[in-house]
Amino acid sequence: MFKKEEQKYNIISYTSDENSTLKEILLDKLNFSVRSLSKMKREQTVLVNGKFKKPSTNIEKGDLIEVKIEEDMANFTPEDLNLDIIYDDFDLIMVNKPPFMVVHPTKSHSDNTIANGVTDYIIKKNEKVKIRFVNRLDMNTSGLVIVAKNAYAHHTLSTDMSEDKVDKKYITVVKGMVKDDFGTINAPIYRQTEDSIKRIVDERGQESVTHYKVIERLNDATVLEVKLETGRTHQIRVHMNHIGHGIIGDELYGYVDEDLINRQALHAYSLEFEQPRTKEKLKFKAQVPEDMKKLIEKLR
């Protein structure tokens, strides 16, 4: 079992609640890969009651297993970006991303990214962490981004995400009056060419499921809460366009009026999932940003 008070960002601690082998616990209880076991053995980073042991070692109930997490930091330039960090523990950081900020450096956006800001934050905390992103948002989408502090947390959360164990909700403002109070869009999303940015609904695509409910109907617009069952690139944007209610401000799929808003009115506002180690239920909400609040007021 994971005891919360024993956990650190650079050591995973687990107290055995049964007789087993160290290998079985590392694979079945801690979700490590067979490949990572070889590395632990080679670098002697797994301890039982304070001493290095091989994976074949027999473990008794009550034994303390500790796995050292020793990784070099990713090569992101630290920048003080005054990020809105709403949660931080030994496994993850939750950031409320503003619009117009990229999550990860690219050729066209090499700085002022979430990665740069989080790197600055962890250096100032005197932590040596290789950050990995569990989810990503488009530059012009605001809201919650999960940053994993180690490979274990990233693997566990990414698996949960792919198995639909992470509850993801968005707020968006779309063009037109959505007729039904609730609805589900089940339409496969396809990328036509390797270098194409735009996605389309096409039977050749990946299964994609989006649920929505009406929050408020405005003047020729509707505020929706959207829940993702799958996580395809541009999924909400493509699906809203598909049902004839493109997102206001979305240059690629929606309805653009810069007098209303100068980016897509899409905000990742709610995430619920289990903490990777302790399995504690974590719930986060990020307030709707000012530009979307102003948009809703204008449309009222």
TrEMBL record:
Q: What does the record give as the reaction this protein catalyses?
A: a uridine in RNA = a pseudouridine in RNA
Q: What is its EC number?
A: 5.4.99.-
Task: Name all Pseudouridine synthase RsuA/RluA-like domain ranges.
Answer: 91-242
Q: What class of enzyme is it?
A: isomerase
Q: Which SUPFAM superfamilies match?
A: Pseudouridine synthase (SSF55120)
Q: Which domain of life is it from?
A: Bacteria
Q: Which PROSITE patterns match?
A: PSI_RLU, S4
Q: Which UniProt keywords apply?
A: Isomerase, RNA-binding
Pfam family example for this protein?
PseudoU_synth_2
Which family is it part of? Belongs to the pseudouridine synthase RluA family.
Q: What does this protein do?
A: Responsible for synthesis of pseudouridine from uracil.
Please give the name of this protein: Pseudouridine synthase
Species, as recorded: Paeniclostridium hominis
